[in-house]
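Example S7 (structure tokens).
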């Protein structure tokens, strides 16, 4: 049993404000844990569905389009890291990892791939409900913002005007980018903490006919040189053996 009841997280019998009817997919192979989490979430006014392994989790995610996924790391058939990677390939569904490993490397792995939060077992199920509510509120607020205008650190992209700017020494500078460089920068800025593989960037940002992943490296290098010319270093960041993420943007 890997739950720890503590008094500091009371169970709410009503859904968190503005989060009524949110659907939570619980991907957890230990049925006892899943049933307790489902009870707590349902008592909080949220809907739930349970997947017992990684394959079922991906199938339910595709079919039901849940508002958030509670994702265990160790599951049969497909582990949580692989499930998370595929969910991120599909879109931006919020994911909270459930891990039994209280080690920084595991937390960093989840955040690097694109998890929104993590909870270490043993956990208090009421704390998990509170984390779910916090992530749902945050992602709902992000979704309500103008998705056609991206702002990360010193960078801003206007997708309608197809214009990218960066602020240097308190002055905005328009970036002279190729279409591919613009697409790469916009993709990285949409999820600045997420690491994108070269394959993902190749498919999403490069013209049809470009099939070599090393072509991505060339475009990244050219983008970096343009940013370095304005005094912006370390963007995008290379993650060895994985791909690229946006970086600090400073």
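Recovered sequence:
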């Amino acid at each position: 049993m890997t739950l720890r009841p503590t008094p500091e997280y009371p169970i709410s019998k009503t859904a968190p404000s503005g989060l009524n009817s949110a659907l939570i997919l619980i991907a957890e192979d230990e049925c006892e844990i899943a049933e307790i989490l489902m009870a707590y979430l349902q008592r909080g006014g949220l809907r739930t569905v349970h997947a017992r392994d990684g394959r079922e989790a991906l199938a339910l995610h595709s079919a039901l389009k849940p508002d958030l996924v509670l994702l265990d790391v160790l599951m049969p058939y497909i582990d949580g890291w692989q499930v998370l990677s595929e969910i991120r390939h599909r879109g931006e569904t919020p994911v909270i990892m459930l891990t039994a490993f209280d080690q920084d490397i595991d937390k960093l792995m989840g955040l690097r791939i694109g998890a929104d939060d993590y909870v270490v077992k043993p956990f208090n199920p009421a704390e998990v409900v509170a984390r779910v509510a916090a992530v749902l509120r945050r992602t709902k607020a992000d979704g309500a913002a103008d998705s056609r205008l991206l702002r990360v650190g010193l960078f801003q992209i206007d997708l309608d005007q197809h214009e990218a700017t960066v602020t240097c020494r308190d002055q905005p500078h328009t970036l002279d980018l190729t279409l591919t460089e613009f697409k790469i920068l916009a993709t990285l800025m949409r999820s600045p903490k997420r690491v994108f593989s070269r394959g993902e960037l190749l498919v999403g940002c490069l013209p049809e006919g470009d099939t070599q992943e090393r072509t991505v490296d060339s475009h990244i290098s050219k983008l970096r040189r343009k940013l370095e010319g304005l005094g912006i270093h370390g963007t995008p960041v290379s993650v060895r053996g994985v791909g690229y993420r946006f970086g600090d943007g400073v």
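Notes on this example. The domain at 23-144 is CATH 3.40.50.2300 (Rossmann fold).
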